[in-house]
Amino acid sequence: MSLFFQSLVLGVLLGGLYALLAAGLTLYFGVMRVVMIAHSAFLILAAYLAWFFTTETGLDPLLSLVVTVPLFFVTGVLMQRLLISRLRPATLTMMSVLLTFSVALVIEGMLGFVFSGTQRRIRLPYSGDSIDLFGANIAVVKLIAFALAAVSLGALFLILKKTQFGQALRATIQHPDAARLIGINTDRIAGYGFGLGLSTAAIGGTALALDSTIYPSLHWHWIGPLMAIIVVGGLGSIPGAAIAAMLLGLGQSLLQIPLGTTWAQTLFYVALFATLMVRPQGFFGGRLAQRF
Amino acid sequence: MKVTTHHRLGALALASCLTLSGCMSSGSGSEGEAGDGPITIGISLPLTGDFSEPGKGVQRGYEAWADYVNDNGGLLGRDVELTILDDQSNADRVASDYEKLINQDGVDLVFGPFSTRLVVPAAQVAKDYGFLFVEPAGAAEEVFTQGFDNLFYAAPAVADDHYNYLADAIEALPEAERPKTAAYAAMDDPFAMGTAYGLKTRLEAMGVETVVDEVYPPNTTDFGSIAAKIADSRADVVVGGTQYQDAVNMIVSLRQLGYQPKMAAFSTAPTNPEFPEAIGDETEGILSPTGYTPEADYPTNPEFVEYYTEAHGTAPGEDEANAWTTGQVVAAAVEAVGCADPDPECQGQLIDWLRENEVDTVVGPLSWDAEGRPEGAHLIQQYVDGEIRIVLPEEAKEADLILEKPTW
């Protein structure tokens, strides 16, 4: 019983982290039909920046967000305006895979060149601390990562629902031509949307760095599960991605008890195949990019 | 058209000349008597590609050994000369490299390449020509089950035997003080699993109950669930068949769940200088097997460390030490038998001598079974007072073994 409850708690925490890491990925696709293979590479880049910040200054890695979030936002806007908007609309989705794949390779290579291939971990005084909850241990670092996820996803939701920029972004997602007709500068909005997505990568990467060992090629381990999450959740839907992330995180954690790690990891791909066969538009998003 | 034909003929002629001269030089090599010209040693190493990092380490070790031998009067009074080819970490390439070294270059001896994947095809070529094949890397079981009668692994132990000294120490305890239960988590990798399961076999034979036995794929990044299983079992001993990041992540996850084992052993990671930086002060009492340490006081080791450090500015690592060991092993056989040429009779004598004898090396005295498995065990290191020290075996120890691991 206690193992079940502990695994449940770990699954919820893991699901929250997955939701944060996948949020940007689904946003890019929603806004621009871009498959952003480099998203996980940017996560690792942010994790490295957090590690570098902490080793250089001795301050808490969370403070690095003050620098990395705006930096990633600007990088995202520039990347959209200078690279992705140059792709031909007819082949955008496919070509974006190639383009962002190359960006991922460049980031990985640069990380290896600058920081070497040595595996790094931020040493935190509270890395092993935990809070007791009805007999289950909740690691402080995992709780912080979960809180970061909750706050950023909540903020993202409010931006999209309550602000004028959010309305314009949603209009761009739902019907770019109609959005242009009512005077929305869809190019600029798409750029900001991309920047917003990359800002979540800055937060996600920092959350990841709190509780994992990082190395330049780590992003290849993440992109597969994250892609599976956004397909299961419905491409372009942030709540869909969040629900799918939570369910898959929980499922992975609980299935590990009877099946072991190897088989529990296949859950993502089983869910991916099932979604593509039964409901290609995703289980929670409804028709592509029609809702938030 | 005519010109092309001429070119072709010219190329053919040139190629024949080269082949001929190759054969001639190999012919003269085998006829050569002791004392004339250097002893040539052929080696193929992965200097580029997947294994380039360890490959270069092995190259440094081989070159340092050759320089050392030449500085100290050579082998059988002759200088040694290395011919090192780059196999690009490619298994097809490594076979043709050794083919070329033996057949065309007419080398007197060969040394092995790096890693199981390249050792197996290379050893096959050496076997076909009746050559002695001593190799510095390739500890997985499949190396020793191919029927090679010419192969010797120049390191203290195969993966399964890495923890033997620790198992011996536990066995020596009074039954009441031995651990009762053990949890194992190993990466799905022949080397990492071999280390953990070698200890598992020994502990189970002593009656230590296995309460968790997890194997995880190499791409696993989240160790929360594995740690939850181990913590829930409250095992006395936790054994990790690990590389690096998996060990660090697992240890942190175990600490987060408040699990306090009496003994914790992980392969590879704890000997990495990054490890204490990642884990902090909570490394105390963590155990790890190691094949080599510059501090070991085996007869020739201080000399090796001094010579190598002087040349390179840093102390040698395990790859360099295993390469040096390979040189020592072959040199011991050559000195004892008194020959070093490609003649099958000489190579056969070298092989037979190594079967029968023990060789003193920088990683300790080595002897082999019929398949070429070394019959030793790895040193056991433990974090004592914040530093990793040798605690087992008794005769090599730098600090006393801590049996009851402090809390982490």
Would you give an account of this structure?
The complex is a heterodimer of chains A (292) and B (408). Chain A has 292 residues and is mostly helical. Chain A has a two-stranded antiparallel sheet with strand order 1-2. Chain A contains twelve helices and two strands, in the order H-H-H-H-E-E-H-H-H-H-H-H-H-H. Chain A is globular and about 60 Å long. The longest helix of chain A is centred in the first third of the chain and has 31 residues, at 2-32. Chain A has one domain: Orthogonal Bundle (ABC transporter involved in vitamin B12 uptake, BtuC), CATH 1.10.3470. The mean pLDDT of chain A is 90. In chain B, a hairpin with a 2-residue loop joins strand 11 (359-361) and strand 12 (364-366). Chain B is an alpha/beta fold and 408 residues long. Chain B has helices spanning 2-31, 52-71, 91-103, 116-128, 164-171, 190-205, 224-233, 245-256, 274-279, 301-312, 318-337, 344-356, and strands at 39-45, 80-86, 109-110, 133-135, 151-153, 181-187, 209-216, 237-241, 263-266, 287-290, 359-361, 364-366, 379-384, 387-392. In chain B, the strands form five sheets. In chain B, strands 7-6-8-9 form a four-stranded parallel β-sheet, with helices on both faces. Chain B has a three-stranded parallel β-sheet with strand order 2-1-3, sandwiched between helices. Helices cover 42% and strands 17% of the residues of chain B. Chain B is built from twelve helices and 14 strands. Chain B folds into two domains: 30-157 and 297-366, Rossmann fold; 161-290 and 378-396, Rossmann fold (3-Layer(aba) Sandwich), CATH 3.40.50.2300.
Widest β-sheet, arrangement of strands of chain B: 7-6-8-9
Count of runs of 4 or more consecutive helical residues of chain B: 12
> What is the gyration radius of chain B calculated from CA atoms?
24 Å
Task: Please tell me what the overall shape of chain A is.
Answer: globular
Please write the CATH class name of chain A: Mainly Alpha
Kindly provide the radius of gyration of chain A, computed on alpha-carbon positions and rounded to a whole number of angstroms: 19 Å
Report the uncertain regions of chain A: none
- How far apart are the first and last residues' alpha carbons of chain B, in Å? 79 Å
Estimate percent helicity of chain B. Answer: 40-55%
Instruction: Give the topology string of chain A: H per helix, E per strand.
Output: HHHHEEHHHHHHHH
Please summarize the sheet with the most strands of chain A: 2 strands, antiparallel
Proportion of helical residues of chain A = over 70%
Give the helix/strand class of chain B. alpha/beta
Helix count of chain A?
A: 12
